[in-house]
Amino acid sequence: MENTIIRVMELTKTYRVPVRAEGLGASLKSLFKPTYSEVSAVQAISFEIPQGEMVGLIGPNGAGKTTTLKMLAGLLHPTSGQVSVAGYEPWQRQPQYLRRISMVMGNKSQMLWDIPPLDSFRVLGEIYSVPKKEFERNLEELVQLLEMKELLTKPVRNLSLGERMKCELTASLLHRPSVLFLDEPTLGLDVSMQLRLRRFLADYNRSSGTTVILTSHYMADVMALCPRVILIHHGKILHDGELGTLARRLMPFKILRITLKQESMAENELPELPDGVEVLEAESNNLNLRVPRDEAAAITAKLLETLNVADLTIEDPSIEAVIDQVYTDGGQ
Amino acid sequence: MTRGIFTPSRGGWALIRSTWLSWMQYRSFFFILAFGWMIPPLIYLLVWSTAAGEGSISGMTRGAFVAYYLILILVNQITYAQTNWTVGDLIRYGQINKVLLRPIPPLYDALASEFAGKVVYLVFVVPILVILAFVLKPELDLTLLNALAFIPALIFAWALRFFWGYWLALLAFWATRADALLALQDSLVFLLAGQVAPIALLPGALKTLAVILPFRYMVAFPVEVITGQLTRPEMLTGFAIQVGWMVAAVILYALLWRYGLKRYSAVGG
After folding, report:
1. pLDDT value at residue A229
2. Would you identify the CATH topology of the domain A252-315?
3. Which are the contacts of A68, defined by CB distance < 8 A and separation ≥ 6?
């Protein structure tokens, strides 16, 4: 791939976790002869990301998303495999590398609690040695995009969670990183704040060309922001590509929503349905059906013939339903 | 890892300033801490100066004890490395991630809170010492040589105490409650660094122990230097031992930081 900024090859991380049986005897024994078990967090994953792309890293809790992100940011040393981000090997943590990246963790703050954000920003500007003029320009741009001028002089402890996340984002972008790692940036935020942050991230990504990797539990974040998703489960990549393709691959179904003309259906009076159709919901004169994707057209035609249809829509299953299926049974 | 640690840096100074600003919000908390650290030496000041009465103990008069302890309070305040207590927490709760993501050496964070802390404490402690000096009337025979020697002795004492505590705190990479060792260090400093009694007054074996171990050189040594308790050879041996321990502490700090980080990035925070 040309202008690839992140290259991950056969990246593997195995944690060594001390095992301790219950009871006093066992804990004494483990003191002298500790036993470890190997927990495999990430298994030989590979992917490449071009400059300026916004990629969603999704997967259930414990899938290996944060571990992957931490290895990319240089906080974790992999067990094996190679990573190159902007030409650097992250875990060497060279200052030149650290100046080119940024990481926002939804549950950890880099703001100082007791002083106004503006003071923290200035410190970060110095730490990243951003030239004064450039600093002022970046700050003004971010403050405008995030509509947070009035927050600059209030102590951080007096800010709401959403306001604090605005500050975190500003703090992480002041030095104009080439790569931004976002770990659950919208955690715990209300819907309208999520929307605004999403809009900001999309705008910023477009205008600055910053490469963004985002993990989130809110599918809406990923759907709105990331043309490409990497789905990780049990440390392996299950899918790398468009979200829509994922749905098609993992859920070979369509949902038919039918409204019948007659006033209502009596119970147990379901009309006769073709083979392969599964009833998801039948209430009053509404029917929700699940049909195999490649037979959807034929079945729809047959239903239009046999039933007295007032309205009919064909939909893809919701992405939440897809993800839920993956999370619960591994997409089998 | 050690590259550029001691070269001045924009980021380092900015960190110090902001830490100081945020700590000024808690002035009263730090005043109470500083007050707490003052009390034990103050008690022993009163004990020894009363014991000396009109005479002297091992050549120290009442006024000499007052001078010794007032200076000791100041030195103790300046060298006390409270940052060491927070390093362990940083590691335990994964907050160290944010420090590791920054393009400057993590030592800067510790130094920032050290310097910020010193300013806040001294604002409180110095006026009190001045008042105490007026009330208790210390007697100090100050020579130029002793005054000059005091400055490096004090700086080395701070560096020794800081890095000694820091390497102990870094054991948090391996053991969850490494700060128990910091409490032990505090107790040893209390016993062997001239707080309970000036080292010269300690019984034989304990005195030898105090001279050999690093703790005397964290607090008592600079005080002994400025109050003129030491002969020229004693002072020179003292400096040699102090610098030796300081170098050892810095080496231990650098090693533990290196291997600790390796372990941290292997097991994850």
Report:
1. 92
2. Alpha-Beta Plaits (3.30.70)
3. A11, A13, A42, A45, A57, A232
How many residues in total does chain B contain?
269
| A275, burial (CB in 10 Å: exposed 0-12, middle 13-18, buried 19+) | exposed
Indicate the domain borders of chain A: 4-10+46-248, 252-315
> In this complex, which of B13, B22, B103 lies closest to A112 when CB atoms are compared?
B22
- Statement: A4-10+46-248 belongs to CATH 3.40.250.10: no
At A229, which helix (H) or strand (E)?
strand A228-233
The strand pairing partners of B89, in sequence order, are: none
Beta carbons of B22 and A114 less than 8 Å apart: yes
Q: How confident is the model at residue A98 (pLDDT cuts 50, 70, 90)?
A: very high
**List of chain A residues whose C-beta atoms are within 8 Å of the C-beta of residue B102:** 98, 127-128
Entry pTM: 0.81
Out of A183-192, A259-268, B115-124, B126-135, least confident range: A259-268
pLDDT at A251 over 60: yes
| Strands, sheet with A278-283, edge to edge from the N-terminal-most edge strand | A278-283, A286-292, A253-260, A309-315
* Closest chain A CA to residue B94: A108
Closest CA relative to residue A193, chosen from A213, A214, A220: A220
A204 token code pair: 């910023």
Query: Residue A214: enclosing H or E segment and its boundaries?
Result: strand A211-215
User: Token digits for A123?
Assistant: 């410190």
How close, in Å, is residue A80 to chain B by CA atoms?
11
Chain A nearest-CA distance from B174, in A, is 12
Q: Which of A92, A91, A48 is nearest to A211 (CA)?
A: A48
Output the six-digit token pair for A173.
């972008």
What tokens were used for B61?
A: 């008069």
- Cβ atoms within 10 Å of B202's Cβ, excluding its own: 19
Domains A4-10+46-248 and A252-315 fall in the same CATH topology: no
Distance from the A191 Cα atom to the nearest Cα atom in chain B, whole angstroms: 27
